[in-house]
Amino acid sequence: MIDYSKRRFLVIDDQAQARDALRAIAQTIGAFSVEFAANYQDAIYRIRNNTPDVILCDYLLGEGRSGQQLLEELRRFNLLPDESVFMMVTGEQSYEQVVSAVELVPDDYIIKPFSPDKLLLRLDRIAQRKAFFGSYYREKRRQNYAQALAILETKKQSEAGRPYRFEILRQQAEVLLASGETTQAEQAYRQILDQHAFPWAKAGIARSLHAQNRQSEARAAIDDVVRDTPHFFDAADLKAKICMAQGEHATAQAVLDEVSRKTPRNYLRKRLLAEAATLNGDSATARTMMADVISNDSMPGAIAPADRLALARSHLQAGDKLSTEQLLLGLRDSEVQNFTLDDQASYAALLALCVPEKGRARFSGLRPALLDTALSTPARIDVIRAALGLNDPKLADKHAAQLMAGDEAKKIFGNLRALYALHGREVDFRELQKQAALQRIHHEETPPAA
Fold first, then answer.
1. SS3 letters for the chain?
2. Per CATH, which fold does 1-132 belong to?
3. What is the pLDDT of residues 241-261, one digit of tens each?
4. Tens digit of pLDDT for each residue in 113-155?
5. Which of 143, 281, 319, 368 matches a 20 to 30 Å C-alpha distance to 157?
């Protein structure tokens, strides 16, 4: 018997009567410390400041928010340790939406109305599972992946692990993927799929193939998941990423546009949609999405310099140099100085393009570092655009050649070709493309060193 008097409960519901009813049920099973949260923001605040052991969260939280969105945000910012229990409380009409979230699921769900005995049964079952995986959770949190895998293997062989067989297999595959062992992760997911056709296992195979840059195979795998599991929105996100990697930006944008309309407060998805729209040349959608993100992604620390730079990039792509200038010059110089080199490179490049008299000197000052440093793909494209505009072919060609030789060549090929064509350098770009192709062939034909 588990002693719930020593565990902190948080009841989340926007209806006072429902909160009182849930507290009464929790107290009936022995809970002593029961706090309330009346809405989404209140819940975030309380969980950030004092993580509860058990969360009972209604699916509908008012103001267009849901318990699923709350769970996504908690996981996104690592605010909810694996040891905490997150139970969704739902009415019959919301049941379908709760159980269809096959990727990021709550620990359990319970349909209203329910008795204290039913809640106790569910909580006991979850608590036992959490205790069983406790040592694994600790090692995973430390990113000690080898030890985490060893613990899972031991548990898989134990008698106590029999009820958790598929969860152990899933966690093993997830750890392999997180640690960069993508081929082994693929094999692990395939072994699971041989035993049961879980949508998350099919998506796991696609994720593993995507990480190996085997995009055609990944696309075929994820297409099956998206078709067969229409509410699996994370699978749609993965399909969009794979489409972008294949250079199919219009398809990626269409996929993300559809799921974003169904999940209007998922701001990670809106960032992804803005990226797809930018690659697709749809600056209007990119501007709309990034403006929404910056205005409404209200979690403390959620808005990064890269977000503001993405909005500036979309302004510039739309030909709106004034909005680009206002956004960039609205950033404090002390803030810009603390940017990463990637963000400083993008900032200087975008400023040089929209206000040459103010940005050229900053961009030139960074040039030695830009010639000698590997940058992120968005930063490289910004640098190439600025270098072409400032008649610096050496800097532009260096980064273009590195992009064309890398794993994201198909993703950015159309954008780079358009940039070079804009400056009358189509022949030079074709030569860069040829050299990159020869480099890849040489790399594939050269055996690894003994």
1. CCCHHHCEEEEECCCHHHHHHHHHHHHHCCCCEEEEECCHHHHHHHHHHCCCCEEEEECEEECCEEHHHHHHHHHHCCCCCCCCEEEEEECHHHHHHHHCCCCCCCCEEEECCCCHHHHHHHHHHHHHHHHHCHHHHHHHHCCCHHHHHHHHHHHHHCHHHHHHHHHHHHHHHHHHHHCCCHHHHHHHHHHHHHHCCCHHHHHHHHHHHHHCCCHHHHHHHHHHHHHHCCCCHHHHHHHHHHHHHCCCHHHHHHHHHHHHHHCCCCHHHHHHHHHHHHHCCCHHHHHHHHHHHHHHCCCCCCCCHHHHHHHHHHHHHCCCHHHHHHHHHCCCHHHHHCCCHHHHHHHHHHHHHHCHHHHHHHHHHHHHHHHHCCCCHHHHHHHHHHHHHCCCHHHHHHHHHHHHHCCCHHHHHHHHHHHHHHCCCHHHHHHHHHHHHHHHHHHHHCCCCC
2. Rossmann fold (3.40.50)
3. 999 999 999 999 999 999 999
4. 888 999 899 999 999 999 999 999 999 999 999 999 999 999 9
5. 143
